[in-house]
């Protein structure tokens, strides 16, 4: 199909992890003549979450896709919740560079709130966030963010470190290229 006859929707599928969920979703999308353009899927504590941008024919509605997905999941007895939204084209982002911010130490319920607020105040977009326990009551939060060029990285780093220390935590801010080079594991 030509590009002019396609548009996009955002599809979310959530619930208990079971084999066959990705198969069910992709089968419905394919049957409708649509394409899974971009997909992110994760399982946390046995709970499944999938989010994808779907390029679909304009004559296929988001309700068509949601109904078909719900029916297929019910038919396969997968017990998932489905959400299909209109895709909203994001505004053009300010130029920036990708960074990784790691926060670790004693687990607390306010770590993500505290550090996401600091980033929001600087108009820094969080593109990915992972948080998980590491050992003996310790946790690790990894924020991947694009830092706009006008943000003073040294001042930001100092703010993050000071806040982390005040909370008995440790913090590291690294350009993503450096982070990946340092953490790359070579398997032979």
Q: How is the main sheet built?
A: 4 strands, antiparallel
What is the CATH homology-level superfamily of the largest domain?
ACT domain
The poorly predicted ranges are none
**Tell me, what is the CATH class of the largest domain?**
Alpha Beta
Counting DSSP H or I runs of 4 or more residues, the number of helices is: 5
Proportion in helices? 25-40%
Structural class: alpha+beta
Number of DSSP strand runs: 8
**CATH topology (fold) name of the largest domain:** Alpha-Beta Plaits
Largest sheet: spatial strand order: 2-3-1-4
| Number of domains as seen in the coordinates | 2
List SSEs in N-to-C order.
Answer: EHEEHEEHEEHEH
Beta-strand percent range: 35-45%
The outline comes out as globular
Rg, alpha carbons:
20 Å
CATH architectural type of the largest domain: 2-Layer Sandwich
Mean pLDDT: 91
Question: What does this molecule look like?
Answer:
It is a single chain. A hairpin with a 2-residue loop joins strand 6 and strand 7. This protein is 31% helix and 41% strand. Helix 1 packs across helix 2. The chain folds into two domains: 84 residues, Alpha-Beta Plaits (2-Layer Sandwich), CATH 3.30.70; 88 residues, ACT domain (Alpha-Beta Plaits, 2-Layer Sandwich), CATH 3.30.70. The chain is built from five helices and eight strands, in the order βαββαββαββαβα. The mean pLDDT is 91. The protein has 188 residues and is an alpha+beta fold.
Q: What can be said about this structure in brief?
A:
The protein is 31% helix and 41% strand. It has 188 residues and is an alpha+beta fold. α1 (21-31) crosses α2 (62-75).
């Amino acid at each position: 199909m030509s590009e002019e006859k396609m548009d996009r929707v955002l599809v979310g599928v959530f619930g208990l992890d079971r084999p066959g969920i990705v198969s069910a979703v992709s089968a419905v999308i394919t049957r409708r003549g649509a394409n899974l353009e971009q997909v992110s899927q994760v399982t946390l504590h046995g709970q499944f979450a999938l989010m994808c941008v779907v390029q679909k024919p304009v004559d296929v509605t988001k309700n068509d896709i949601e109904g078909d997905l719900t029916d297929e999941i019910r038919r396969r007895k997968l017990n998932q919740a489905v959400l299909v939204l209109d895709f909203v084209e994001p505004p053009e982002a300010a130029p920036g560079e990708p960074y990784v911010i790691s926060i670790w130490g004693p687990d607390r319920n306010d770590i993500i709130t505290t550090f996401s607020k600091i980033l929001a105040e600087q108009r820094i977009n969080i593109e990915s966030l992972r948080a998980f326990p590491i050992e003996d009551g310790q946790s690790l939060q990894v924020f991947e963010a694009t830092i706009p060029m006008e943000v003073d990285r040294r001042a930001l780093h100092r703010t993050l470190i000071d806040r982390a220390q005040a909370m008995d935590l440790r913090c590291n801010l690294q350009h993503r290229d450096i982070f990946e080079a340092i953490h790359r594991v070579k398997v032979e």
